[in-house]
Every structure is written in C-alpha cells, then in structure tokens.
Amino acid sequence: MKMQSYLGQARNTGSTKNGVHHWWHQRLTAIALVPLALWFVFSIIGLADADHAAYKDWLGDHGNMVFLCLFIFVMFYHAVLGLQVVIEDYVSCEAKKIFLLVFVKLIAALMGFSAITAVLRVAFGG
Predict the structure, then answer these.
(1) Which ranges does the record mark as transmembrane (predicted)?
(2) In angstroms, rounded to a whole number, what is the distance separating the alpha carbons of residues 119 and 126?
C-alpha cells in the first residue's frame, strides 16, 4: 500500500504529449470540412442537370480544382485521424493495432492519391 494521495499517484505517469497535437488536427480538419463540404454539395446541386462537358468545364476552373483537391485531402486526413483513435482505443492486441494503423494509413493515402490524380487528369484534359 502506497502512502501517496491519488493526485500524487496520477502525476508523473508519463504522458506521450501527442494527444493535444492529434486532438487539434482532428478539430481543425473538422472545421475545414464544413465550408469545403458545403461548397462541394452546392456545386454539385448546381450541376444537377448538366452533361459531362459541363462537369469537365467546372473541374477545369482552377478554383474548383484546388477546392476539390483540398476537400479530398482534408477528408481523407480527417478520416485517418478518426480511425486511428478508434483503433487505438478498441484494439487490444498490439500486433493487430499496428497492422490496422498502417493498413488504414496506406489505404487512405492510395485512395487520396488516386482521387487527386483523377481530378488533375480531368482538369488538365489528360
């Protein structure tokens, strides 16, 4: 039995000091997704009756291309941050946890790269 208060026992338990950094990234990406998602939804609603050429023209506009690439990047980064928290909290086996974290990051990077590459190819007429 320790002769130390609960506060004394809780102090110096070894913080990783990465929690606040991760928390801020998750909140900032969530805040960034609000205007980007609204822009995307209203843009697509505006193109509801458009044909393929209109979509290509819309994507050929540099502002739309940049916003769409930004939306894709922020969306995948936010998803990775959220899945990382879920995996770290609910997967107890360390080997499975490491595998899932690497797998999620790899899949998100591949999907994000593919999506941004597709946007750039359409935007630049490739």
Answers:
(1) 28-45, 65-86, 98-124
(2) 10
Which residues are within 8 A (CB) of 37 and not within 5 positions of it... i.e. 6 or more apart?
A: 71
Residue-level pLDDT at 20: 87
113 within 8 A of 81, measured Cβ to Cβ = no
Could you tell me the pTM of the whole model?
A: 0.83
Contact between 115 and 121 under an 8 Å Cβ cutoff? The reply is: no
3-state secondary structure the chain: CCCCCHHHHHCCCCCCCCHHHHHHHHHHHHHHHHHHHHHHHHHHHHCCCCCHHHHHHHHHCHHHHHHHHHHHHHHHHHHHHHHHHHHHHHCCCHHHHHHHHHHHHHHHHHHHHHHHHHHHHHHCCC
One-letter amino acid at 77 equals Y
Delineate the domains of the chain, giving CATH numbers in brackets: 16-123 (1.20.1300.10)
Position 1 scores a pLDDT of 55
pLDDT in tens, 13-23: 655 567 788 89
103: tokens are 């797998």
